[in-house]
Amino acid sequence: AQKVTQAQTEISVVEKEDVTLDCVYETRDTTYYLFWYKQPPSGELVFLIRRNSFDEQNEISGRYSWNFQKSTSSFNFTITASQVVDSAVYFCALSEAATGFQKLVFGTGTRLLVSP
Amino acid sequence: DTEVTQTPKHLVMGMTNKKSLKCEQHMGHRAMYWYKQKAKKPPELMFVYSYEKLSINESVPSRFSPECPNSSLLNLHLHALQPEDSALYLCASSQRPGQGRKNEKLFFGSGTQLSVL
User: Fold this and answer.
1) CA A57, A2, B73 angle in degrees (round to 5)?
2) Contact A47 B99 (CB under 8 A)
3) pLDDT tens digits for B96-114?
């Protein structure tokens, strides 16, 4: 069965600090996809990144970076020089070949509070 | 246009009422999804429609009845709900069913906040 664990319930930082959000996943599938979504107070889930199980290359997009390590089943997300607008709930999610990739299973989310 | 539009944004209903939630997308996507999100919890999948046909029903109670009249529209009909059904209902779409295609991802609407009294 697939499972996503985000152990950090809430993180508070001051603007310009770097912050890392942890994500650990479980799956029996050899082919799967990992995602990060951001949910601001407005409620809409905003796609941030997708990573395929066969591609362990780390990625950087502006202030955001992701570290995917299959050996530890982790897909961590780092925000560099955080800003107040980064305040939101961040969800890590997983979809598997076993469900035709139609089912996206979310972790419990990490609430990030960035204060000025 | 990369939007998924949900109406209404807020809905209050009694346990004997019948109401419907609506979702619309004009991105040519052929898969649409309903998720339920309780307060301070992650979204949970309810239904998936692939090419206007129901492909996944996550054992959702029959008081929730989905409908996909065409590839752009998705409805969720509500009847005889319970107070514990109060939640944020999120609609999403993707270009094709499943996310096996390169760069496939879900586009979410901002949801309907439902309160059942």
Assistant:
1) 90
2) no
3) 776 556 667 889 999 999 9
